[in-house]
Amino acid sequence: QVQLQESGPGLVQPSQTLSLSCTVSGRSITTGPYYWSWVRQLPGKELEWLGAIGYAGDTFYVPSLKSRTSISRDTSKNQFTLQLASVTPEDTARYYCACEFRTTRDRKYEFWGQGTQVTVSS
Predict the structure, then answer these.
(1) CA 45 vs CA 13, 42, 71, 73: distances in Å
(2) Are 113 and 6 in contact (CB under 8 A)?
């Protein structure tokens, strides 16, 4: 069974960088064809995909946030990290990490973390 656990501060000040980590157990993040995503849900809104890092280390970002988003990984810890710079209160959301199976013929999310609430406020 694959498990994902988000960790990071629940409160971030405006203009600072939000940094969250996702620790994975049960599957190496270097195993293909799996991609490791960050997704958020703003209050009253649908899920919004922010970006992902693939098993080979390649990264993908949603265009609207690409200039502020960075996803990296630490394979020794089996962990991947989201950094979102210059946050505003509009970035207040519940943030999830997820494991996606992805090939040229099929894509599906297989496992999710429980999510972590992040509030941007002074």
Answers:
(1) 22, 5, 23, 28
(2) yes
Distance CA 32, CA 70 (A): 21
Summarised one tens digit per residue, pLDDT across range 3-62 is: 999 999 999 999 999 999 999 999 999 999 999 999 999 999 999 999 999 999 999 999
d(CA 12, CA 10): 7
Two structure tokens written together for 111: 């496992």
Instruction: Say if CB 51 and CB 62 are below 8 A apart.
Output: yes
In sequence order, what DSSP letters do the residues of 47-113 get, joined into one string? EEEEEEEETTS-EEE-GGGTTTEEEEEETTTTEEEEEE-S--GGG-EEEEEEEEEE-SS-EEEEEE-
Rounded Cα gap, residues 37 and 54, in angstroms = 9
pLDDT in tens, 56-106: 999 999 999 999 999 999 999 999 999 999 999 999 999 999 999 999 999
